[in-house]
Each structure stands twice: as C-alpha cells, then as structure tokens.
C-alpha cells in the first residue's frame, strides 16, 4: 500500500491518481474513474473531482493508496 501525505484539507481524486503515478496522465485518471475502476474506502467512486481527505483509502489498477 502506498502512503500519500497531504498538507491541505483534501486532494481531488484525479490529482491523487496522477501524483501517485497510478495514472500516467489526467486523461487516464478520468477514464479510470468514469469506467468505475476506482474505489474509495471499498465503494466505487465515479466523481473525478471527489475530495479525498486524510484516512481514506483509494484503490485502482490493483494499487491502494492511504491518504495521511
């Protein structure tokens, strides 16, 4: 599991996917979300700009990220 530290209140989902290199680009991140390939705390997340906060776990393409 990847640990990703934020120093703000939240990070947008597609920005998190790019920052952790799960997605190579913003376009790829958007496609992953649109196709339902991203889960947020175990539930599918379809909002590209969902506000991800500390303590949440995002999973896509077999990789998990814990935001701290």
From TrEMBL:
<dbReference type="Pfam" id="PF13275">
    <property type="entry name" value="S4_2"/>
</dbReference>
<protein>
    <submittedName>
        <fullName>RNA-binding S4 domain-containing protein</fullName>
    </submittedName>
</protein>
<dbReference type="GO" id="GO:0003723">
    <property type="term" value="F:RNA binding"/>
</dbReference>
<dbReference type="InterPro" id="IPR036986">
    <property type="entry name" value="S4_RNA-bd_sf"/>
</dbReference>
<keyword id="KW-0694">RNA-binding</keyword>
């Amino acid at each position: 599991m990847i640990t990703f530290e934020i120093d703000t209140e939240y990070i947008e989902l597609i920005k998190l996917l790019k920052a952790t290199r799960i997605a190579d680009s913003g376009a790829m991140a958007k496609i992953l979300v649109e196709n339902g390939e991203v889960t947020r705390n175990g539930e599918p997340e379809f909002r590209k700009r969902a506000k991800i906060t500390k303590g949440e776990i995002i999973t896509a393409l077999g990789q998990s990220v814990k935001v701290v």
